[in-house]
Amino acid sequence: MESNYEDIIITCKDCNNEFVFSAGEQQFYAEKGFQNKPVRCKECRIIKKQQKNNY
Hints:
Radius of gyration: 13 Å
Strand content: 5-15%
Order of helices and strands: EEHH
Distance between the termini: 43 Å
Helix content: 40-55%
Number of domains: 1
Low-confidence stretches: none
């Protein structure tokens, strides 16, 4: 199955580093019904999740 997705470069809103939102990740998001692109890189998402779980 061919996808119409291409890798996109996104700037993390927390650390301002660029990260790749891969075609595979985009397809996964679409299959799950997610409407928005990620705004944080993987590392910042992990940190944010840990902070959330500590409160």
